Amino acid sequence: MTSAQTPHRVTVLYGGFSAERKVSLVSGEAAAEALRARGFEVSSIDVPRDMAALTSKLAETKPDVVFNALHGRFGEDGCIQGLLDMMALPYTNSGRVASALAMDKAISKQLFASAGLPVAEDKIVTRQEAEETDPMPRPYVIKPINEGSSVGVRIVREGDNKAPLDDLGLSSDSPIMVERYVPGREITVAMIGERPLAVTEITTERGFYDYDAKYADGGSLHVLPADLDASVYQRAMDVSLAAHRALGCRGVTRADLRLDGSDLYLLEINTQPGLTPTSLVPEQAAHVGMTFADLMCWMVENAKCDA
Q: Among 121, 183, 185, 307, which residue's CB has the most CB atoms within a 10 Å radius?
């Protein structure tokens, strides 16, 4: 849509109350600014826990499309998508089922494996079990089942002391994923619709691409396009598209992978990738000639609901 066309009303949902609130605020503000510049009539809602208040605010803004800029639990896991489906409001990115599947690392990995996609071995254990003993030979990675942006992710290496996992905010019997650590290179592929854009390699001096490396200034270096053999580059794009399809995703997603020698491993797919100044999807979109505003407009114009 160009600025010469009649503006549509867009309501941006951002902020919220997950562990990724700060990132969501930045994503939402950037999206709103870009859409206003393209002539859309934009309202923004910092999503409260009170769903009655949220539905009232949505009714007041009368959106043609809801731009979902929420990250993490309750915004990325199918909850908000279900509410919008009930209200028959089209929204950006994946529907409630695909969102819920992608957010649950255990279920999504099972579906990836069933689709023949390469994944690392893992175990689901309780937090208490992970604190008491090594669930698998070191090194391994501990991941909360249903958080994004590497929240709560850590590597347990040889020689490390066992650390309590109190900071995960989970009870002792809550399930967590323990996954074999895959050494090598961190790469990622953005998807727009069913079009893989490019492959980015991510490096960081922090030794691990954790939450701070993702969002802190200078926390990571993005090599775009990744310096890979052409066949490996294409395979990364193919695996990412297959992962997008395996979960029934739509809109924009981003697949995260590890490359160990010539062996590729799919880590996860993100149905609400970040739109911050350091985010990977806008960077890949620019690489293929799509401005940030172009990307935001595409997301609005391809919004849907499952009502």
A: 185
Q: 149 an active-site residue?
A: yes
Domain spans of the chain? 9-92, 101-118+183-292, 122-180
CATH of domain 9-92: 3.40.50.20
Q: Which of 16, 18, 20, 73 is catalytic?
A: 20
Is 215 considered catalytic here? yes
Q: Where are the beta strands (DSSP E) in 121-194?
A: 122-126, 140-144, 154-156, 175-180, 185-192
Predicted confidence (pLDDT) per residue in 271-291, tens digit: 999 998 789 999 999 999 999
Query: Does the annotation count 131 as an active-site position?
Result: no
% of the chain exceeding 90 in pLDDT: 77
Give how far Cα 72 sits from Cα of 79, 228, 232, 234, 300, Å.
11, 31, 31, 29, 21
Q: Which residue of the set 256, 258, 265, 279 is catalytic?
A: 256
Q: Is residue 16 among the annotated active site residues?
A: no
Number of C-beta neighbours around residue 280 at 10 A: 24
Please give the pLDDT value at position 207.
53
What does the pLDDT look like over 107-163, one tens digit per residue? 999 999 999 999 999 999 998 898 888 999 999 999 988 865 456 788 999 988 876
